[in-house]
Amino acid sequence: MKNKTTRNKMSSSRLLIVVCGLIFFWTAHALASDVKIVANLSVRTDSISSSELRSIFMADRNSLRDGSYVEPVFERAGAVHTTFLRDVLRESSESLQSHYGALVFTGKARMPRSFNSDAEVLAYVASTRGAIGYVSASAGTEGVKVLAVVSEGNLPERALLVRVEPEYPETLRQLRIGGTVRLRVTVSPQGHAESITLLGGNPILGEAAIRAVKQWVYAAGPSRITLQVTVPFDAH
Amino acid sequence: MIVSSGLSICRSAARLYLFYFILVPLCLSAQDFKLDGREVQIHGFASQGFIYTDQNNWLTMHTTQGSGAFTDFGANISMQVSDKLRIGAQVYDRNLGNLGEWHPSMDWALVDYRFKPWFGIRAGKVKTTLGLYNDTQDLDFLHTFVLLPQSIYPTDIRDATIAHTGGDIYGTVSLSHGLGELFYTAYAGHRSDSIYSGYTYLASQYDVHYSRYGGLQYGGDLRWKIPLRGLLVGASRMNQDLTGNATFISPYNPGGGFVPYTDATRADWTNQFYGEYTRGELQLDSEYRRFVHNDVINGGILETKSDIRGWYVSGRYRIVKRLAVGSYYSRYWITTGSAGPLASLFPDHTDTSLPANHIYDKVITARLDLKRFWYVKIEGHFMNGYGDSTFPDGFYPQVNPQGLKPDTNALVVKTGVNF
Questions:
Q1: C-alpha neighbours within 13 Å on the C-beta side of residue B256
Q2: Contact flag B176-A153 (C-beta cutoff 8 Å)
Q3: Closest partner CB to B117 (pick from A63, A97, A111)
Q4: Which residues pair with B310 in a beta bridge?
Q5: CB–CB of B117 and A69 under 8 A?
Q6: Does A68 touch chain B (CB under 8 A)?
Q7: Which chain B residues have a beta carbon less than 8 Å from that of A225?
Q8: Given an 8 Å threshold on Cβ–Cβ distance, is A62 in contact with B84?
Q9: Chain A residues with CB-CB distance to B126 below 8 A
Q10: Where are the beta strands (DSSP E) in B298-390?
Q11: Which of A42, A159, B93, B159 is least crowded, fewest Cβ atoms below 10 Å from its Cβ?
Q12: Residue B251 DSSP one-character state
């Protein structure tokens, strides 16, 4: 009897953990999918690691690994800004303000540009060499490039050499269904995608993304590596 | 006393009026413009404080009567000349009791060239990196506390560590295998104290009047943002080789008037270790500093040795967007010794359990952000001890002629703006 009660308690605990885990995963995924990283066309890379992104937006570095200069551009407020701060920078608005205050008033950096809307960010990024910003996943991306955010530590060894954009499924485009697809990609030593797993996002968009990523070519390397790749679909 | 206190409050009110009705509107005006196609930014800050203490006068102010002689402001201008080159300068002015006395100083003025993320150079007058907050200790608007832990960041002798005229090399290195990031700074330059600083004010009690104090300052800082989210640890080292020129009345010939006086350091170094942990709206940090200072006066008529150790543990939490609270516990000890013909005038202090050789400070604070650019803070200090009267550590004999009492409680209120 005691064993049964204990087992029931354990089952309930596991169920609770699984449900909490699912809620957390769903929430985290939903938030991560709300933002996309945009860059001026002069930025050579097509992908960026989350740690590099954080370093750039915290003014710890002002160039990418390939040496090209970048200038971070912020939104002033709003859901996209809050999501970006929480999920990418892991800072609150107040701590970010303090961080830049410390840099600016000790002569270590200048205050970054910030704008009121996606449209203003996109207009500045499109017209400013090296500018890199973030906008909502549903914002248009004409005149800028969208950077894929990949997992830590995978950029320097295996740079993306050939990137093929996915074909947008026509039905979803007409219905204005967009978003971001996350994939796990195993890259062979020769630089080709060996296996691709859909981690998150719309399954139909996922299929289109997988077809495109199969054609991507990475720099050759000494061994097989696994990357997490984000592919945005802009419905506008 | 009542009249004096009333006058002090009137002066504070006048300053507040100037502050909010002149400075604040200025703050809200344009902050950047284009010059030759390049963006120029202008930023500034100002703050006004008030301190009341129940026992000893503190920080060179007559705080037992309530003092508002606690004002500072600064403004900077900077320009990104090219992708890698940036120039800028900041002026800073303060009046803290008998310190500063409204004499503005060039806080920093530098040229910064960043070759790579892992290697950059700053040259000119550069803020000195020492521990978590040395370079930002004047920037009240950044901190939850009005006064940072005085065991590590004594505001009366800020000149001693705040900046050097010379250069820094610095950079950020991303460690492989997800081991986090390293930030390094190495520096060398010349430190030059204001003659309105705590050192020179303290010396004036012995009729020593400085015309110059400063010298070589060099060292480095290494901090590691470790893979555990929100955790930073680091260490700093500073070495100095200082000389001072002054005049004084010789105890051998008191009737002879002022004669030249010089002092030179035989040893002057600081080691500092620190850690910071941030989780959501909670921030915890702790630092330890040891500072050793050996001075030789007038070629050997007196040699003084001071060994100062301090640490603090601090926590702060933002309850809601506009309200943050914090608390810290700070401990400071000083031991001193002397040698030479005049040593008998300066008895050794070695027992750190005595109030004359320590300051223990328990602090609680609240900060209210009225607007994005305007804040008010209120803070309580509950101190035991008053440090050594031969070293500047907050409690000065000149403003405590009746002698120092072992305990001091302080109420500190401060407001400020920045743009």
A1: 10
A2: yes
A3: A63
A4: B289, B332
A5: no
A6: no
A7: none
A8: yes
A9: 107
A10: 302-320, 323-339, 358-371, 374-384
A11: A42
A12: T
pLDDT tens digits along B281-331: 999 999 999 999 999 998 888 999 999 999 999 999 999 999 999 999 999
Calpha distance B419→B417 (Å, rounded): 7
Decide if B282 contacts B319 (C-beta within 8 A): no
> A35-149 adopts what CATH topology?
D-Maltodextrin-Binding Protein; domain 2 (3.40.190)
Contacts of A112 in chain B (CB under 8 A): none
Q: Note whether B37 contacts A: Cβ–Cβ < 8 A.
A: no
Domains in chain B: boundaries:
2-418
Residues 233-272, chain B, touching A (beta carbon < 8 A)? none
Whether A60 sits inside 8 A of B183 (CB atoms) is yes
* Minimum Cα–Cα distance from A101: chain B residue: B142
b/e sequence B34-69, b meaning 16+ C-beta within 10 Å = eeeeeebbebbbbbbbbbbbebbbbbbbbbbbbbbb
Distance CA B417, CA B341 (A): 52
In this structure, which CATH number among 3.30.70.60, 3.30.2420.10, 3.40.50.300, 3.40.50.720 belongs to the domain A157-236?
A: 3.30.2420.10
> What pTM was estimated for this model as a whole?
0.80
Give dist(CA A194, CA A203) in Å, integer. 20
Q: From the list A63, A102, A152, which residue is nearest B142 (CB)?
A: A102
Superfamily for B2-418?
Porin (2.40.160.10)
Burial of A87 per CB tally in 10 Å (0-12, 13-18, 19+): middle
